[in-house]
Amino acid sequence: MKIYKFLSLFFIAITLLSFSSCSSRDDDDNPQDTTPGNLQIKFENGFNNLGNIVLNQTVQTSSQGQKHNFSALKYVISNITLIDENGKEFRYNENNPDKGAFIIDQADAVAGVVYLNLNEIPKNNYKKIKFGLGISQSAYLLGMDGQAEFWNRAKQKGMSWSWAAGYVFVKLEGKYGTGSATTEFMNHTGNMGKVTENNTPDLYREVTLNLPTTARVNGKIRPSIHILADLNQFLSGEKALTLTESNAMMMGSSQHLVDVTNNLTKMFKVDHVHND
């Protein structure tokens, strides 16, 4: 009887050990497998880190007591870079807008979220993400090479001035007011032409964000990075701004739009990461 119990326990232990070993092999990364994977980035626009702005409906009150809403909310994301645990960078189609630039348009949001799908990402564990707000001068100065497709997309989305003048980086339109939002505004930021030659501010900005959970990219796992954009930063950011008759209808890179750009650069944060 004792021998029977011993053998039963022995076989149970072997079975559990084998199952655990198989599970470990399935779950652990195989260092010999270098198959690239895919990555999804979700952008959710909101106020005060509460997402899902509804165009023409969601009203926010700024730190200066000014009410405002958006009828158009669009911005360009480019030069996405993933940074691994050792600080090594993978640059996704750097300065190649045709393949590496995207327009985040709130009108395209599904349940408040705009989805970007990146492919052929090297297998790795990534701890940070970096991206550009707008289009860099390096990409713009390439001319039509590498950005003809994106130029057409930008033109269709109303995110360009003209070919000689370049791209709109951020397009914010809506209404503002004190008691209620009734007066129209239009703030379009972006570079017009060659900033050095024209002696104008370069409004392209880069943003680096820490990931609260490591994004584990491999051939079996497609991580999803959920980024919240707090549009309260527009008027209530690092520099409190007030819309007036003098700045409500502005395009380009005036000082007001430099301030808007600097505020919006701080609006992004990674809310969470899914590894599945």
Quick synopsis:
The chain has 276 residues and is α+β, with helices and mostly antiparallel strands. It is 22% helix and 38% strand.
Beta strands, count: 13
* Structural class label: alpha+beta
Main sheet properties = 9 strands, mixed
- The Rg value, from CA coordinates, equals 24 Å
Strand content: 35-45%
Molecular shape: globular
Q: Report the helical percentage.
A: 10-25%
The unreliable regions are 9-28
State the assembly state of the protein chains: single chain
Order of helices and strands: HEEEEHEEEHHEEHEEHEHE
Terminal CA distance reads: 48 Å
Question: What is the number of independent domains?
Answer: 1
- In round numbers, the mean pLDDT is 90
Enumerate how many helices there are, as a single number. 7
